[in-house]
Amino acid sequence: MQRLVPVILCVVLLLSHEHAAAAKKNKPIEKVTIELSSSMATPGSTLVLSGKGFGPFKSTVANQVTVNKVPALVQRWEPELIEIKVPFKATSGFVEIMIGKKKVLAGLLTIVLPEIEDITPTEAERGSTLQITGRHLGLSAGARDPNTMFGVNDVLVGGVIVRPQRWKDDKIELVIPANATSGDVVVRLASSDPLPDGSCCAPVEYVRSNAVPLTLRPSIRVDPISGPVGTKVVLFGQGFGQSKERMDDGVLIAGKSATIAQWKDDVIVVHVPLDAESGPLMLRLQGQERVLAQFAVHVPRITTLSPASAPIGTLLRINGEHFGFYSESGATPYNFLDFNTGQNRVEIGGVPAVIYRWNDDRIDVWVPFSAKSGKVMIYRSATKPNLGGLCCAERGTMAIEAGDFTVVTPMIESYDPKSAGLDATVTIKGSGFGTFLKTAEHADLGLNQKAYTRRSDIEINESEASATVLSNVSRTEVLFNGAAALVQSWTDQEIVVKVPHRNLYGIGKKGDFFDDLATGPLVVRRGSWDLLPDGTCCSPKKWLTVEAGQFTIEAKGLPDDGYWTNNRPDASTGQ
Asked: CA-CA distance, 191 to 187, in Å (whole number)?
């Protein structure tokens, strides 16, 4: 208010001079009670004059409004209301209305200019939110403003025009655009004055606030921002340098160096170290430190282990959270590129299991052929970096106990009948049969590769023949003298199968044919594998076989002989 006192005094003096000049020229200035919508306004803002006796609008010559002698653009004129745009060149002074030859004094208007007091933050990334606080920043509805023809208030960020998200007279919020550069932040208020004849409109001009500097930093995306030890964390950005140049450059989590796996100008790959703790993830580059995110170091937790007991070849499911991912020990930004599993593994009774699925909240493994009853342990691979963050001062694992597992051996108590015809059902009773595997993942892990190799013939039940595609791709099956039966139902205590056709008709391959397989052993078997000594998958499929006894396939259920002598029933018709 102290700044406004001299202005008001000057305006009062101007008013007295105006009255004197009007008296000399015999141009009366009528004193009419008129209310201004505001006593202070910025150039370009809308000012409303409320009163009576304005009369109808006739022309831009007969109906005018001035602000301290500067003509204003009239947007609306009604007998009791006038709406004007405060002119760009106006200064503080009296608002006067000209109605024909009559001049009406409307009141005193103080012109104020936008002023930025502070911006938050002063250093920011593109895409982040910038807050501007100040005084007389005006108002704006942006592109939705009905007065867009008179220009739209905006903000300049490093020379780039930005339309803010929120705009109040004392606060503006905006998202820094991707094409912005470091530079000054300036608030611009648009204004359009009338042409000399009072009509619309002169070119839009802008009143500018003071300039406040803003420094923009390259955006860096961190993925992920949480995980257990060993988690691969990737920084995507620009300007990191083609390699790690300084000893103290690196990525730190809660003040401890992460193990650097790759450093390029646009990407940095690190691994969460063995001794990591939750805290700020910070990039130290060229002597400057920058906090990029808050990283949460999780501890894996087990919720369920199912089943608790089963035979080999069973799919063992471990549910929980924060297991991380299986193949994230490599140096590439994406896990599937190098598929480096490190020392990530699951052991059952000290024997490594075959990994089928490893997600952050679930791990599925096949119980290996050599599995033993005991603890199920999950091992999470991680390292400790050398000085400077390079790999590796120490390699180790974090062990998580999932629970106890008992390996069950299948036992057959009875089977009935001992002989039957084709397609007859046979019931096998016992215990420890486990579950029937219905997954599309084949028993022979290399089957998908062998399917594309040229072969001379298909071997029957000869698992040692590694050069050909095997016929037995199941891991839960019942064999009648070496030929698989169709399983009707399979539970842990009972299996129901149908007598197969092949044994009675005979089976064979090139150069060999067996025409009498009607009598032979009835067996139940489960297949599985073991990991190789180097930890890779897998050994040839191995079988756990339990024999029920001898079974004879009777010559029953054969097709009608008439089928062979008259295999075209339609030949005797006129169709």
From this structure: 13
CA distance 393 to 542: 40
DSSP H helices in 279-436:
335-338
Contact 527, 436 (CB under 8 A): no
Kindly state the greatest CA–CA separation across the chain: 138
In the chain, the amino acid numbered 508 is G
d(CA 255, CA 248): 12
pLDDT of residue 418: 94
Alpha helices in 299-430 (DSSP H): 335-338
- Give CA–CA dist 437/192, Å, rounded: 79
- pLDDT tens digits for 532-559? 998 888 888 889 999 999 999 888 877 7
* Threshold 0.90, pTM exceeds: no
Query: Which one-letter DSSP state was computed for residue 390?
Result: B
409: left (phi over 0), alpha (psi -120 to 50) or beta: beta
The candidate with the shortest Cα–Cα distance to 3, out of 157, 136, 199, 104, is 136
pLDDT higher than threshold 70 for residue 180? yes
331 Cβ partners below 8 Å, 6+ apart?
261, 262, 269, 338, 340
| H-assigned helices in 310-372 | 335-338
The position carrying tokens 């201004």 is: 36
Whole-angstrom CA distances from 123 to 128, 184, 215, 251 are 10, 12, 5, 20
Residue 23 falls in which region: left (phi positive, over 0), alpha (psi -120 to 50) or beta:
alpha
Q: Is the pLDDT of residue 444 over 70?
A: no
Render 241-252 in DSSP notation, one character per residue: -SS--STT-EEE
d(CA 505, CA 553): 11
> Quick one: CA torsion of 352, 353, 355, 357, rounded to 10 degrees?
-130
In one-letter notation, the amino acid at residue 211 is A
Interval 289-330: pLDDT, tens? 999 999 999 999 999 999 999 999 999 999 999 999 999 999
Residues 260, 385 contacting (CB under 8 angstroms): yes
**Spatial separation of the C-alpha atoms in residues 242 and 565, rounded to whole Å:** 81
Cα–Cα distance for residue pair 322/192, rounded to 1 Å? 61
Q: Look up tokens 């129901």; give the residue.
A: 496
